[in-house]
Amino acid sequence: MIKKVETIWLDGKLVDWDKAQVHVLTHTLHYGLGVFEGIRCYRCQNGQSAVFKLQEHVDRLFDSAHISQITIPFSREEIFQAIIETLKANKLQEGYIRPIVFIGDGEMGLYVKDYPVRVAIACWPWGAYLGEEGLRKGIRAKIASFTRHHVNVGMTKAKICGNYVNSILAKKEVTAMGYDEAILLDTEGYICEASGENIFIVKKGTIKTPPPTSILQGITRDSVIRLARDAQMNVVEQRFTRDELYIADEAFFTGTAAEITPIREVDDRGIGRGERGPVTEHIQKTFFDAVQGKNEQYKDWLSYL
Q1: What CA–CA distances, in Å, run from 284 to 183, 217, 270?
Q2: Which of 155, 182, 178 is closest to 170 using CA atoms?
Q3: Is 3 exposed, middle or buried (0-12, 13-18, 19+ CB in 10 A)?
Q4: Global pTM?
Q5: Terminal-residue alpha carbon distance, the chain
Q6: Rounded Cα–Cα distance for residues 94 and 123 (Å)
Q7: What is the distance between the alpha carbons of residues 191 and 185, in angstroms, rounded to a whole number?
Q8: Sign of the dihedral through C-alpha 292, 293, 298, 303
Q9: pLDDT of 59-98, one tens digit each?
Q10: Of these residues, 53, 159, 171, 208, which one is catalytic?
Q11: What is the pLDDT of residues 214-266, one digit of tens each?
Q12: Is 91 a catalytic residue?
């Protein structure tokens, strides 16, 4: 359950959590055309709170809206500041932030010429998405029967609300079988991404992740690539098959919610030693050091409140 805070930013002003409501004929509720972001705020070692890569998230929100032909009625700077304002208003030192841009009520039907565009920003306390134990020991994943979006079926570079029906169905399928997360293949049968995360494997010292073709190019994904390369690790963006995943030395997911989560098993096959490996552990540590303000090299990743 979401832990309720005091206020939500809605269409330019802070309103009481329980009053942040929309009409049942809200267009996005029926047809799924809306865009959103998932962002994290961390409590840093100096006692201050900072949002991880806030500008990059705001930019991706606007890119998603542009791809979807939605004009956000606020500037990038206004949304940036509204996120900071919402965190401060709720006295939240650490947690998750959800900006969403959606089409309001007024007209129905697939094609709506004139429609109100609404914006909400919510935040709440939220720990490890796939569990604290999962961060330490790794999780069990399964290849889902559902295929990921083709680049000419959905706009894969946009974080569109309706795109996640595919993720929900895949996640429901595998969790009903006792697994923690779903992995989806692309339309040619290569590993694509998880229901809400990007995926990496490690084999003989090389880190490999699918190229940004049909995946959502994650902000945490890009950060991990930089962290690994800064540590003189070899990183390649290259497609790989499910059997290549099975025989990897290590594998892990990345994402704003999942952070850096090891994969210990896929399709009932242990990955490497069946536990978090040394490369994954190193990347986890350097990532958390960066987002908690412990590494000056990555100080530009943080926007302090």
Answers
A1: 21, 19, 20
A2: 182
A3: exposed
A4: 0.95
A5: 26
A6: 10
A7: 5
A8: positive
A9: 999 999 999 999 999 999 999 999 999 999 999 999 999 9
A10: 159
A11: 999 999 999 999 999 999 999 999 999 999 999 999 999 999 999 999 999 99
A12: no
